[in-house]
Amino acid sequence: MASPKLVRRKNILAKLGVTEHAWRGSWSHDLGDSIVFDAWDHKWERDTHGHRTRYPLRTQHGHYNLIDLQQNPRAGHRRWQEHVELVLAGSRKPRAIVPVGNDTSSTKNKGAKGWLPVAVEGHVEHGNQGEVWLCVDKEVSL
Q1: Which residue pairs from 80-83 have beta carbons closer than 8 angstroms and sit at least 24 positions apart in sequence?
Q2: Deepest of 25, 35, 76, 113, by most Cβ within 10 A of its Cβ?
Q3: Going by DSSP bridges, is the β-strand pair 52-58/93-101 parallel, antiparallel, or unpaired?
Q4: pLDDT (tens digit, 9 = 90+) per residue, 92-132?
Q5: Which sequence spans correspond to the domains of the chain?
Q6: How far apart are CA 127 and CA 115, in angstroms?
Protein backbone atom coordinates (compact mmCIF):
# COMPACT_ATOMS: atom_id res chain seq x y z
CA MET A 1 0.00 0.00 0.00
CA ALA A 2 1.41 3.39 -1.00
CA SER A 3 1.91 6.08 1.59
CA PRO A 4 -0.47 9.04 1.33
CA LYS A 5 0.86 12.21 -0.23
CA LEU A 6 2.28 14.61 2.34
CA VAL A 7 0.75 18.08 2.60
CA ARG A 8 1.59 21.41 4.24
CA ARG A 9 0.68 21.98 7.89
CA LYS A 10 -1.25 25.16 7.12
CA ASN A 11 -3.54 23.17 4.78
CA ILE A 12 -4.24 20.57 7.49
CA LEU A 13 -4.92 23.26 10.09
CA ALA A 14 -7.21 25.15 7.71
CA LYS A 15 -9.30 21.98 7.24
CA LEU A 16 -9.61 21.81 11.03
CA GLY A 17 -10.74 25.44 11.25
CA VAL A 18 -7.54 27.29 12.16
CA THR A 19 -7.68 30.63 10.39
CA GLU A 20 -4.69 32.46 11.88
CA HIS A 21 -1.09 31.78 10.93
CA ALA A 22 0.53 29.08 13.09
CA TRP A 23 4.10 30.13 13.79
CA ARG A 24 6.79 27.58 13.13
CA GLY A 25 7.59 27.02 16.83
CA SER A 26 3.98 26.22 17.68
CA TRP A 27 3.64 22.54 18.57
CA SER A 28 -0.04 22.67 19.55
CA HIS A 29 -3.10 24.64 18.49
CA ASP A 30 -6.18 25.74 20.46
CA LEU A 31 -9.36 25.34 18.40
CA GLY A 32 -11.71 26.39 21.21
CA ASP A 33 -13.34 22.99 21.71
CA SER A 34 -10.15 20.97 21.22
CA ILE A 35 -6.37 21.13 21.29
CA VAL A 36 -4.56 19.81 18.22
CA PHE A 37 -1.08 18.51 18.99
CA ASP A 38 1.66 18.07 16.37
CA ALA A 39 2.43 14.39 17.00
CA TRP A 40 5.41 13.07 15.00
CA ASP A 41 4.60 9.94 13.02
CA HIS A 42 7.70 8.02 14.15
CA LYS A 43 7.08 8.75 17.85
CA TRP A 44 3.67 7.05 18.07
CA GLU A 45 3.36 3.72 19.84
CA ARG A 46 1.76 1.19 17.49
CA ASP A 47 -0.06 -2.09 17.77
CA THR A 48 1.04 -5.31 16.06
CA HIS A 49 -0.73 -4.20 12.84
CA GLY A 50 1.17 -0.90 12.74
CA HIS A 51 -1.81 1.26 13.73
CA ARG A 52 -1.15 4.25 15.97
CA THR A 53 -2.30 3.59 19.54
CA ARG A 54 -0.90 6.34 21.77
CA TYR A 55 1.40 9.35 21.84
CA PRO A 56 3.17 10.91 24.84
CA LEU A 57 1.80 14.33 25.81
CA ARG A 58 3.83 14.48 29.01
CA THR A 59 6.64 12.24 30.22
CA GLN A 60 9.14 11.94 33.06
CA HIS A 61 12.01 11.69 30.53
CA GLY A 62 12.73 12.45 26.89
CA HIS A 63 10.16 14.56 25.07
CA TYR A 64 7.56 16.75 26.79
CA ASN A 65 9.13 16.62 30.23
CA LEU A 66 8.13 19.31 32.78
CA ILE A 67 11.57 19.34 34.42
CA ASP A 68 13.18 19.87 31.01
CA LEU A 69 10.77 22.77 30.41
CA GLN A 70 11.91 24.45 33.63
CA GLN A 71 15.61 23.90 32.88
CA ASN A 72 15.43 24.66 29.15
CA PRO A 73 12.41 26.90 28.54
CA ARG A 74 11.11 27.03 24.98
CA ALA A 75 7.94 28.78 23.88
CA GLY A 76 6.61 25.77 21.94
CA HIS A 77 7.18 23.42 24.88
CA ARG A 78 5.56 25.82 27.38
CA ARG A 79 2.53 26.27 25.13
CA TRP A 80 2.29 22.47 24.64
CA GLN A 81 2.23 21.89 28.41
CA GLU A 82 -0.38 24.65 28.91
CA HIS A 83 -2.50 22.89 26.30
CA VAL A 84 -2.02 19.53 28.04
CA GLU A 85 -3.36 21.19 31.21
CA LEU A 86 -6.50 22.35 29.34
CA VAL A 87 -7.08 18.80 28.11
CA LEU A 88 -6.50 17.34 31.59
CA ALA A 89 -8.95 19.87 33.09
CA GLY A 90 -11.59 18.63 30.64
CA SER A 91 -12.07 21.99 28.93
CA ARG A 92 -10.70 20.76 25.55
CA LYS A 93 -10.72 17.46 23.65
CA PRO A 94 -7.34 16.12 22.52
CA ARG A 95 -6.61 15.71 18.81
CA ALA A 96 -3.44 15.36 16.77
CA ILE A 97 -2.05 16.02 13.33
CA VAL A 98 0.89 13.97 12.11
CA PRO A 99 4.13 15.41 10.74
CA VAL A 100 6.61 13.08 9.03
CA GLY A 101 10.17 13.83 10.10
CA ASN A 102 13.11 14.48 7.81
CA ASP A 103 15.30 12.14 9.87
CA THR A 104 13.28 9.64 11.89
CA SER A 105 16.43 7.99 13.27
CA SER A 106 17.51 11.19 15.03
CA THR A 107 16.65 11.72 18.70
CA LYS A 108 15.86 15.36 17.91
CA ASN A 109 13.26 16.31 15.33
CA LYS A 110 15.04 18.01 12.43
CA GLY A 111 11.96 19.34 10.68
CA ALA A 112 9.09 17.83 8.75
CA LYS A 113 9.05 16.55 5.18
CA GLY A 114 5.32 17.21 5.32
CA TRP A 115 2.15 16.22 7.12
CA LEU A 116 -0.07 13.19 6.71
CA PRO A 117 -3.60 14.19 5.62
CA VAL A 118 -5.19 12.79 8.79
CA ALA A 119 -6.45 14.03 12.13
CA VAL A 120 -6.40 11.78 15.18
CA GLU A 121 -9.34 11.97 17.58
CA GLY A 122 -8.65 10.63 21.04
CA HIS A 123 -8.73 10.74 24.80
CA VAL A 124 -6.06 11.01 27.49
CA GLU A 125 -4.87 8.32 29.84
CA HIS A 126 -2.38 8.48 32.70
CA GLY A 127 0.53 6.07 32.96
CA ASN A 128 2.04 4.47 36.05
CA GLN A 129 4.97 6.90 36.13
CA GLY A 130 3.01 10.16 35.83
CA GLU A 131 3.04 10.32 32.05
CA VAL A 132 0.05 11.50 30.04
CA TRP A 133 -0.87 9.77 26.77
CA LEU A 134 -3.07 10.77 23.85
CA CYS A 135 -4.83 7.49 23.00
CA VAL A 136 -6.41 7.00 19.59
CA ASP A 137 -10.18 6.64 19.28
CA LYS A 138 -10.22 7.13 15.49
CA GLU A 139 -8.34 8.66 12.59
CA VAL A 140 -10.12 10.96 10.15
CA SER A 141 -8.85 11.52 6.60
CA LEU A 142 -8.60 15.18 5.62
Answers
A1: 80/27, 80/28, 80/37, 83/28, 83/30, 83/35, 83/37
A2: 35
A3: unpaired
A4: 999 999 999 887 666 566 678 999 999 999 999 998 888 89
A5: 9-141
A6: 28
pTM for the structure as a whole: 0.87
Query: What does the mean pLDDT of the chain come to?
Result: 87
What is the DSSP annotation of 58-113? EBSSSTTBHHHHHHS--HHHHHHHHHHHHHHTTSSEEEEEEEEES-TTSSS---EE
Distance CA 40, CA 57 (A): 11
Secondary structure of 25-67 as H, E, C letters: CCCEEECCCEEEEECCHHHCEECCCCCEEEEEEEECCCCCEHH
* Phi, then psi, of 43 in degrees rounded to 5: -100, -5
Q: What is the mean pLDDT of residues 84-97?
A: 96
pLDDT confidence of 76, banded at 50, 70, 90? confident
